[in-house]
């Protein structure tokens, strides 16, 4: 077989636009997922019982089923309940919900891991409930969950590739389309793999550097 | 949904389970070899193993599957799509399982091996009697977790044309115009299988609890 | 063959980690059939010395003779220091038992399993024979009834007694203890110290790194006081603790008033 990546690289503008969409969806859904996950974790902890139960069920379902099935349900099933979305908004919504379920579990574990004594110490020096959450729980929890949160972000980056199946014009869809037009499908996939690999490695390194910088705040 | 269609879905779920179990098993075997290479003092073994782990954990499974599915014919190997899917899933889970195993092995406290040293166990006896059993026990929760991840990830092999649970739901949704129903049923079946795996996992962990690290 | 008079003979032992020298030129003879206690402030090198004797750490210079046989390194007639072969290390080490601060029981084996492991795997005894001997050792430390329990089901004191039984099962000539009670709750140290006291009374050669000054003063036949990686004092408890005391020792004892040192500091 011949192996020539240059035919793919000829379509550089299209590749870049695909990458841009991948990165955009990734960053947006990670941010929305993290915020939503935090809210879900807080509601499960402080909210009324029935709501907590319903949220728990939703989280279990989102974590227990494949993302592909979720996105099919949303994209193809949505119109039947009046929710007709274009591929990009559907992908963004689906990935954000998926991310929120996982982030809520990470946050929940983080809150549980903050030693009870730290909260008691804050109560003893007279901090209010809200102050304790803002000044003690959230910062400590952030330190604790940072490694898992970075890990989750990496998983989400890879999960964006699944969105190509519902025709979101992200990197996987764009580059493999160019590959089949140019009769260089394998080359296109290699290039794609290398791009993701580089992004994931860079993301992992950045996470490690961040952890290192924040490590002085860690308790033993 | 007619009972006949539900039966089709159940059968497809069986396919998903069989393929997942096979990949987990093959992946464990490859993972053990990769982990051994990663822990080896020889750089020419350590390096490629590290590269293997990094690549298969760094590239989306969908891209891996497409790559293997298209690469094999390109180098003159024509295999059924289910074989390509099995290779892809196995290699991917092997990379994760190798890392889990490595975590298990490096978490065995050094003192336990010093104690073995002091009573005269040879390096191989230490590996067989102390290191490996403790490391495997430490790895059980991660293995259960990995099994659940692979069950879900196996939905992606529908893309290379394997008729498993997701693909069956897709086909039936298209032919009956009832996507909500069939994707919901598929989701329910995945959930049920995962709950079973998780329950089995906690049984296994309970059975091993007496011998846990203090 | 007559055994040399000292169980352990240490000559010119030095140990350094990179540039930091932890042990400086240690010369020490450990008497047979007696309990020797190594005491000293943290960082004085007492645990490192013990681990060198067990060959868990390799000394940078110097030699150690166990019952007259070199362990780890041997000095040749021309003064060169060479490593002895692995099988010889294993043989010489089989005369030494070690008890660790963290017990280091294997978590996936029962108490009896821990005690019999080496008897079966290394010495090739049948399971029945090994279990009979293992039970005898567990009886000796008062834990016959706990034979089928896993380490996670035992208290710290019980775990440490099982660890002692594991070391005893191989019938070592010398037992080394590395701060055996340091990770135990105060109310559990007594049961471990009692077992050690009984072993001492039976004539076992023991080297004990400890912070239990009261135990050292009453059970130790000899006390070795280490400071900054050197043997500062070496003598009987009577010699060391009676006035006039070395000022460094007095300073050290004052920080251990709650570990039984108070009675030693009382004006006579």
UniProtKB/TrEMBL annotation, chain A:
InterPro entries: AA_ABC_transptr_permease_3TM, ArtM/GltK/GlnP/TcyL/YhdX-like, MetI-like, MetI-like_sf. The chain crosses the membrane at residues 20-43, 55-76, 180-199. CDD domains: TM_PBP2 (cd06261). It comes from the Bacteria. Its main location: membrane. Pfam families: BPD_transp_1. Residues 19-201 form the ABC transmembrane type-1 domain. One of its GO terms (cellular component) is ATP-binding cassette (ABC) transporter complex. This is Amino acid ABC transporter. It comes from Methylobacterium aquaticum. The lineage of its organism: Bacteria, Pseudomonadati, Pseudomonadota, Alphaproteobacteria, Hyphomicrobiales.
Automatic annotation (TrEMBL), chain B:
GO terms for cellular component: ATP-binding cassette (ABC) transporter complex. Residues 13-198 form the ABC transmembrane type-1 domain. InterPro entries: AA_ABC_transptr_permease_3TM, ArtM/GltK/GlnP/TcyL/YhdX-like, MetI-like, MetI-like_sf. Its main location: membrane. Pfam families: BPD_transp_1. It is a multi-pass membrane protein. Keywords: Amino-acid transport, Cell membrane, Membrane, Transmembrane, Transmembrane helix, Transport. GO terms for molecular function: L-cystine transmembrane transporter activity. The chain crosses the membrane at residues 12-37, 49-69, 75-96, 134-160, 180-204. This is Amino acid ABC transporter. It comes from Methylobacterium aquaticum.
From TrEMBL, chain C:
GO terms for molecular function: ABC-type amino acid transporter activity; ATP binding; ATP hydrolysis activity. The keyword ATP-binding applies. It is a peripheral membrane protein. Belongs to the ABC transporter superfamily. It comes from Methylobacterium aquaticum. Keywords: Amino-acid transport, ATP-binding, Cell membrane, Membrane, Nucleotide-binding, Transport. It comes from the Bacteria. It holds the Pfam family ABC_tran. It is found in: Cell membrane. This is Phosphate ABC transporter ATP-binding protein. Residues 8-253 form the ABC transporter domain. The keyword Plastid does not apply. GO terms for cellular component: plasma membrane.
